[in-house]
Amino acid sequence: MQILDYETYQQNVTNTAKATQMMQQNLDEQVLEIIRAVQERGDEAALAYTKKFDKAAITSLSVSEKEWNNAFNSIKTGQPKLFKALTAAAENIRQYQKKTKEEGFQFSPQPGIQLGQKITPLNRVGVYVPGGKASYPSTVLMDVIPAVVAGVDQVVITTPPRPDGSLDPVVLTAAKIAGATGVYKIGGAQAVAALAYGTESLPKVDKIVGPGNAFVARAKKWVFGDVAIDMIAGPSEICAFADNTVPPSYVAADLLSQAEHAEDATSICVTTDADYAEEVQKEIERQIPLLEREEIIRESIQANGKIIICDDEEQAIELINSIAPEHLQLMGEGAEEQVQKVKHAGAIFIGPYSSEPLGDYFAGPNHTLPTNGTARFSSPLGVYDFMKKSSTIHYSKERLLDYADTIITIADAEGLTAHANAIRIRKENNYASS
């Protein structure tokens, strides 16, 4: 794991951004071809791509009720400890998301005027759940439950099948616990296209949410506008700000917990202590061989792992805000005060015992978070992502006539005389109903 000073890291960032942009552009041609094929040929194309990319020769994309129930019962009876853990996590997520649910409002700034906001849940949402290198029942809980709390009528899941055509029973169990209404055996860009435009099997949705690989991310970018999306998620990221009051083993373990996601995951430690940086580096090397996903972790750490030494806390916080990390751990002394200085982060974990996996699995706040610096303008997935807002405006006859000249003046200034006329005709004829 590289140890860099502040200036060297900043120089490297520019080069990395250029390389990432080139890689994304190279993917677009393949992704657009997949999207067009699914648009034109529906299930036929979706099944063909599932065979090509997932090596699963299936004849139906839908998970049957029997398959779903069998999976649920097998986990409930065969792995009761896991079932209980999923249920407990789901309840924490549900409680947290209920606190974030917005309500509409009405108010009257003066007699004869009623203004407000009407909040309505989306009709149908698609949740993408990754497969491949790992199984993600936690993503099912995190992404489905907020939609259910919001009141979405249909919440469907797409996830890539295993080569034998089955899905992980734990994922199916989580889907039932969370309240999903359907599950489909399809992943990759083809799943995004199917959700965006609909096929014979999959319903067209209003919004697509959930993390995925580079193909999924680029596909979401290209269908945006025809359908809403939550975000264009990149590889997982963690940034830990620590000092010598924190055991280096804690920092190393937390960094490695994100490195095991994939080879392109990013793990960063920020510190103001050069000696401590070396201790963390040694601890990372000690722990890697002890972990099951050693090969993935080692490649991730070698490519994207960094320990950055800053001059002082002020520079460290400035660096953290420029990174805008998906996960930020403030682990050392003064962590609670440092929170107020952080402007950009997806989720902030405070203190040495608020380990990032706590947020991934159990605490309640969502683990679908903005990546690639988009925490500068984006938020974690939540109930608000599954609701839309309508303004409500009601003026009585008297109030409209009070302000008619003001509105006409502004409309005339813009040269939109038909706008002005819509108000003027009511003023001059004076027959507007209240």
Task: Provide a descriptive summary of the structure in words.
The chain is of the alpha/beta class. The chain folds into 3 domains: 52-231, Rossmann fold; 235-377, Nitrogenase molybdenum iron protein domain (Rossmann fold, 3-Layer(aba) Sandwich); 396-429, no CATH class. The protein has 16 helices and 14 strands. It has helices at residues 6-41, 43-54, 65-78, 80-100, 137-150, 169-178, 188-197, 214-223, 248-259, 274-287, 294-304, 313-323, 335-338, 356-361, 397-413, 417-429, and strands at residues 2-5, 105-107, 113-121, 124-128, 154-159, 182-185, 207-209, 228-229, 237-241, 266-271, 305-309, 327-330, 347-350, 387-395. Strands 1-11-10-9-12-13 form a 6-stranded parallel β-sheet, sandwiched between helices. Strands 6-5-4-7-8 form a 5-stranded parallel β-sheet, with helices on both faces. α13 links the parallel β12 (327-330) and β13 (347-350). α1 (6-41) crosses α8 and α9 (248-259) crosses α10 (274-287). It starts with a strand and ends in a 5-residue tail after the last helix. 42% of the residues are buried. The model has no long low-confidence stretch (mean pLDDT 94). GO terms for molecular function: histidinol dehydrogenase activity; NAD binding; zinc ion binding. One of its GO terms (cellular component) is cytosol. This is Histidinol dehydrogenase.
